[in-house]
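Example for tutorial group B:
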């Protein structure tokens, strides 16, 4: 008979058991379920709700069960429904009626709310470590490419020259925000729901703060209805992971473009590429493409949770069991993507000559020659018009601005002198942008130094 089956005259149909059971996916929370139960049993004993001897026996047996699970000696049962009932059933089978006292003062509603918070807190820590690894990879790439010039783009059109260091450090900032968001999410998640009972708390004199302290929570929930029905923390985590994967996908898209023959900016290492079954010349950026594709999978998990929760009345509803597969899959997907993505970045080769050649085309120094005229006293809008006509002239005559003779320059403005050639070189265009946040070497070195200090503070 089910542990909750006292008021039932018939057992549940096997199809219902299969449909209702969550043990196939929530079994991953076994450690957190047992640690939460140990803390609960300890508190029950300290508060005199059960005897010290009973509390000690329950705790020691739970520890043995944990060891047995990790040693592969335990098989979970579908008809016990979930990890909580499986653990409790095993406990009772080992110590009899004393094991039945563990559930005093709690419900599966607040128990599962506790377990998933504990589990996800640990997973956030793992993901943050993976993000730090990617950040360190980006720092290394950037340090090695402070003088590697390539075109920066807007609208996927060549715009202005920048350095590869500057380009990659933009992604450092994105992942830095991801780390911050995950940290904020973890802080809001770090509130103990145990003690909320099924929905209305309990008449037992529980010490919720004792349990919170033992399990590393910062506080306890202040409303029992909210304590058991809140899944904001899963939605928030999925939002954070979706934004993280969006950043991964953006960089994936650039890697895919850069590795194409049309760009030729990078070559991915053989160990992070695949070939074609029919075309022997192909070298495909499948890691980047898969990461881009898996982004949609994480978005799907977020939409799943928003949809599950949007119409639920207070308090707990069985619909909420759907939270786990969605958030577990998103966590697993992110954890699969981050390490392989970091290694792909670390091993890719840059074709710096191609980058530089691309920066020389597309009139990426047009803004700089306009600024040159402004410094000569011409209003910016007038300078903008002059250079626009100059670019049109160069297009019609199939030449770059740098290739124009002084006579040609003078035909557009008498203010232009011989110093224009040095002023509009790619190197000068980059080095002149020394404002904080700019691509100049010394500015980027300072940004990298700040990035290193940020990562060191996290460790």
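The residue assignment follows.
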């Amino acid at each position: 008979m089910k542990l909750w089956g006292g008021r039932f005259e018939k057992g549940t149909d096997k199809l219902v058991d299969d449909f209702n059971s969550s043990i196939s996916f929530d079994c991953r929370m076994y450690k957190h379920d047992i640690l939460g139960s140990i803390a609960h049993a300890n508190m029950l004993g300290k508060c005199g709700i059960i005897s010290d001897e009973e509390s000690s026996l329950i705790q020691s047996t739970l520890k043995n069960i944990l060891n047995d699970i990790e040693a592969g000696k335990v098989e979970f049962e579908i008809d016990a429904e979930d990890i909580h009932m499986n653990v409790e059933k095993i406990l009772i089978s080992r110590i009899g009626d004393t094991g039945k006292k563990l559930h005093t003062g709690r419900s599966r509603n607040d128990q599962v709310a506790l377990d998933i918070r504990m589990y996800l807190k640990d997973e956030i820590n793992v993901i943050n470590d993976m993000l730090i690894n990617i950040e360190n990879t980006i720092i290394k790439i950037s340090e090695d490419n402070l003088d590697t010039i390539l075109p920066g783009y807007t609208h996927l059109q060549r715009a202005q020259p920048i350095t590869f260091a500057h380009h990659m450090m933009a992604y450092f900032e994105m992942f830095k925000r991801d780390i911050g968001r995950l940290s904020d999410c973890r802080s809001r998640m770090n509130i103990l729901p145990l003690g909320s009972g099924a929905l209305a708390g309990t008449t037992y004199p529980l010490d919720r703060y004792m349990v919170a302290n033992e399990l590393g929570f910062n506080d306890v929930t202040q409303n029992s209805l909210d304590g058991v029905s809140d899944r904001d923390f899963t939605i928030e985590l999925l939002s954070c992971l979706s934004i993280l994967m969006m950043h991964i996908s953006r960089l994936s898209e650039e890697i895919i473009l850069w590795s194409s023959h049309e760009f030729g900016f990078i070559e991915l290492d053989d160990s992070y590429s695949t070939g074609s079954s029919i075309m022997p010349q192909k070298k495909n950026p499948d890691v980047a493409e898969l990461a881009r594709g898996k982004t949609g999978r994480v978005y799907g998990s977020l939409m799943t949770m928003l949809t599950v929760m949007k119409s639920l009345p207070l308090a707990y509803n069985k619909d909420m069991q759907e939270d786990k597969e969605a958030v577990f899959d998103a966590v697993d997907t992110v954890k699969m993507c981050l390490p392989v993505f970091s290694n792909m970045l670390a091993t890719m080769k840059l074709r710096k000559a191609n980058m530089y050649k691309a920066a020389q085309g597309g009139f990426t120094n047009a803004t700089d020659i306009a600024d040159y005229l402004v410094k000569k006293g011409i209003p910016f809008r007038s300078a903008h018009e002059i250079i626009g006509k100059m670019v049109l002239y160069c297009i019609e005559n199939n030449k770059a601005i740098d290739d124009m003779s002084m006579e040609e320059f003078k035909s557009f403005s008498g203010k232009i002198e011989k110093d224009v050639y040095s002023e509009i070189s790619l190197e000068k265009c980059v080095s002149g942008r020394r404002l904080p946040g700019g691509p100049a070497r010394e500015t980027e070195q300072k940004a990298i130094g700040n990035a290193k200090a940020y990562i060191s503070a996290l460790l």
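The chain has 19 helices and six strands. Compare this with the pattern of hydrophobic and polar residues in the output above.
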